[in-house]
Write a structure and sequence with these properties.
Length: 162
């Protein structure tokens, strides 16, 4: 069964002197994931017959780049895409809301073959799952860089408003 989980950091590495995240959301997420990779937070994706070999620094970053658009689309009953484009994982998730459920199709661009290639998740369950990742991300960022975490959308996410 499909799941995507980010366990929040409980301890941080020593903060970098003068580390400031970029203003651009996607770049800030990449920089934040580099910081979070030095903590004890853990990113896990399961589904399509396997536990995925993902990490915080690279794979969480690619997932977080798409997350705001994915949530907005799914909440509006529109299709959405999460592209895990980094070398090694190279998989795309296609979300298609159908009634109170979401059909998720996985396409691999490597030798790995998803089995099955389609899974179903309740719409509310998927929204909760994705929102929980956003909240854990922002709370972990607050631990390692409170100034960056005070920016939107991270500040709202840390308070549970996703």
């Amino acid at each position: 069964m499909f799941s995507i989980i980010l366990s929040a950091a409980t301890r941080a590495a020593a903060p970098e002197e003068g580390a400031v995240l970029s203003e651009d959301y996607e770049t800030a997420v990449m920089e934040a994931c580099e910081l979070l990779a030095e903590t004890d937070c853990e990113f896990r994706v399961r589904g399509f017959g396997a536990e995925w070999p993902v990490d915080v620094w690279v794979d969480l970053s690619t997932f977080m780049e798409d997350l705001p658009e994915v949530l907005e689309a799914l909440r509006g009953s529109a299709e959405a895409v999460s592209d895990f484009y980094e070398q090694g994982i190279q998989r795309t998730l296609y979300y298609r809301p159908e009634g109170d459920r979401v059909r998720i199709r996985c396409e691999s661009r490597t030798d790995w073959v998803p089995d099955p290639d389609t899974e179903w998740v309740g719409r509310d369950e998927l929204d909760r799952m994705l929102s929980d990742v956003a909240v854990a991300f922002a709370r972990s960022l607050r631990l390692v860089d409170p100034v960056a975490a005070a920016r939107e959308p991270f500040a709202s996410w840390a308070e549970g408003r996703v």
